[in-house]
Structure formats: C-alpha cells, structure tokens
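chain below, 212 aa
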Amino acid sequence: GPTTANAGTDQDLCLATAATLAANTPTTGTGQWTLVSGPAGSTITNPSLPGTTVTGLVVGTYIFRWTISFSNCTPSSDDIRVHVFDNPSAAIAGPDQNICIPNAQLAANIPLIGIGSWTQLSGPNTATIANTASPATTVTGLVGGTYLFIWTINSGPCPASKDTVKIIFSTIANNVISGASVTCINTAPPTITGSLPTGSVGGYSYQWQQSA
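prediction:
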C-alpha cells in the first residue's frame, strides 16, 4: 500500500496571503494536495509537491488534504489546518475612576476581532478580578491607593492591542492621591456639636433643625 500520509503541522498566521505546506515525501506512491474547505480564491502552486506553497489566502480557516495513492490500494490521507488571523480590535479599557468603596466595575470595549482579557498591572495589593474575560467585570478587595488594570485583546499570532485604566480608591474624605482630589462619602454617621447660650438660665429647651 501507499506510504502513510502526514500533512505536517497546523499553521496560525497573521494577515498572510501565502503559506508553505510541509507534507512527507512518499516512498511508495504519489502525493496530491487538495483544498477541503476554506474561503474561495486560494491556489495550490504545485499540488503534487509535498512542500508546495499556497497563495491567495485571506482571513479565515483552510483545510488542505495530502493524499498518497498507490496502484489500486486504498489511498492514505491526512489534513492540515491553516488559520489566517486578522489584527485584533483596538483595545479601550474605559474611563479612569475615582471611587470611595473597595470595589469597581470596569468598562472596556467588546472586541469585534479577537479575545479580550483583564490583568492587573500595579496597585497596593492584588485585587480580585471576577471574570478576566468580561469587558465589564468587577474588581474587589481593593485597599486605599492607585491601581492600573490592562485590557488586552489577542488575535492569534497578530500583535496584541492593549489599553490601561486607572482606579483610585480613597478611604478618607477629601483625600488627595497622586494629585487627584477625591471626595468620599463617609460610611460613619457624622457628629454635630452645638453650644448653649452664654449666661443661660433654666426653662429653655433646644432642638436641632435642618435648614433648607
């Protein structure tokens, strides 16, 4: 029978218009490349050559088949996948935030091309990112200080797109961190103190009243 076909290793390419295939050379029989599936318009330069080039590629997934035939025996076939990736969408990590509670909701863009993921670049401690793959994930476990989070969009071997968002968590009202004025809402009820009139005598009562 024919030599067992080996079409080579799958390929991931970035915006490639051509690729070189790498099948085995048969010791018994002859080999032939065919396109099984993929976008229209590609050309196999030399279908009988194990190391042929293919041209006219566009973004998408191609399946090429290497078939070795000999006499009237059953042919041996093997497939290779060639995936041409597009550049990822431009990453937008969302607006910087000044917060007064130990958690925040991020607001990155949803990528049209590629897959996004959150990572923490810096901060006074390691925060918890609820869902690193969600553009609108929450981050919790913050302590006072400044954090930087990166939204990275990947598309195969193409260069990744990245953007950074700054989260400033202030634990003190009217605190200033890194030059940014942050006004916080106190979690404890405020205490107000009045005074009695000078020289007062008995018989008076006093009451707090909220003004307009």
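Residues 11 and 43 are 17 Å apart (CA to CA). The longest strand covers residues 60-69.
thats it, cya
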